[in-house]
Design goal:
With 100 residues, the protein is mainly alpha-helical. The chain has one domain (2-96). Helices cover 79% and strands 0% of the residues. It has four helices and no strands. The protein has helices at 2-8, 11-22, 32-58, 64-96. α3 (32-58) runs antiparallel to α4. The relative contact order is 0.13.
C-alpha cells in the first residue's frame, strides 16, 4: 500500500492538482502553478550559470569571488526549491488523508 501512496505523492502531481483547482488568481495574476514553474525555471537557470562560472574559474578565466558568490546563490536556490517541494508534499499528503 505504501508503494501506491508514494507513487501518488510527488511534487508535480501536487502542483498540477493545485493549478487545476486554482485557475488564475485575482486581477489576472498568475496561477500558483505558473508561479511554481517560474521558481523552478529560475533555479535551473541559476544552476546553469553557476556551472559556467565554476568551469571558467577552473580554467583560470573567471574571478574567484564571482565563482564563490554564484555557488552560494545556487545553494540558496536549491535549498528554497527543496523546502517548497517538501511543503507541497506535506500539504498534498494532508489533503489526501482527509476523510471524505
Amino acid at each position: 500500500m505504501s508503494g501506491t501512496i508514494s507513487a501518488l505523492v510527488n511534487p508535480s502531481n501536487a502542483i498540477s492538482a493545485y493549478g487545476r483547482a486554482a485557475g488564475t488568481g485575482a486581477a489576472g495574476s498568475p496561477s500558483f502553478g505558473d508561479y511554481m514553474s517560474n521558481v523552478i525555471t529560475s533555479a535551473i537557470h541559476q544552476s546553469a550559470s553557476t556551472e559556467q562560472a565554476a568551469s571558467s574559474g577552473l580554467m583560470g578565466k573567471g574571478d574567484l569571488t564571482h565563482v564563490v558568490a554564484s555557488v552560494a546563490q545556487a545553494q540558496v536556490a536549491l535549498q528554497t526549491t527543496v523546502a517548497i517541494r517538501d511543503r507541497l508534499i506535506q500539504a498534498y499528503q494532508s489533503i489526501m488523508s482527509m476523510p471524505i
